[in-house]
């Protein structure tokens, strides 16, 4: 069976660092020099460093709606609630008002994670003590039951974007521990790992080229080149990465699968995944080219353990399509070198 999730912990750290732009932060530099036995240790170490950083910077606050019965009128009076609670008997009314508070979802997720981790026997006693020691800083934050659904309601903006790295790592670690404690099948665990790593892989590839190269780096949506302006129900063409330089454009689609090529039967000839080729070919042909602009596509797979890996260059109807695989198990300096080489195949 093919696999691609045996990525060295050190490389996972670098991928996270690029994806969340933490390479330049002094607090995390020591993480890159440590050895970890598993990904849970890595995530735990990141949280033990990152949560105190958030605390020192001040927990984020926002306006939240508060409902209470009071003998002091503030905000709006809720007549219906006042009557239902029979509050007037005690010379009180039900009021609703906005309060600038730390008791927001982001802080609730972190507190719930700290409570969960401080009680988990899946991490070291030393780390449990560290997490327990951080709980007093969240005294004014409500207790919520830790559940994966919480993350679906998270929204980031310029005021709270500093939370994203830590809140995402909270989820990664919680998921990891959750699967360890459940009877979920190995197939389900592998699928969850692949989904998580696929998202990280896309973010890493984009952030790497943004940081390490002088290309114009973006990930725009491509509009369909229709003849009559009718686009209802057409799927969105969201690129993972677009590199541009000197009237040359390379559209890159990052692919992280447990299987990169397919064969119709065991022992048969391995072929490209047709859907991926159709996708990148469609991107190229709908890209609105400037005069004298050259456009090419690249499928950038994460290498699996299979013998046959994508490593091809096609010329189809005047379009160049690169299909390559990146070995995430090699030394990270080699990963960087490979990525730059792949791009230079087109831009050199």
Automatic annotation (TrEMBL):
The organism's place on the tree of life at top rank: Bacteria
Name the UniProt record assigns to this protein: 5-methylcytosine-specific restriction enzyme subunit McrC
Annotated organism of origin: Metabacillus malikii
Highest classification ranks of the organism: Bacteria, Bacillati, Bacillota, Bacilli, Bacillales
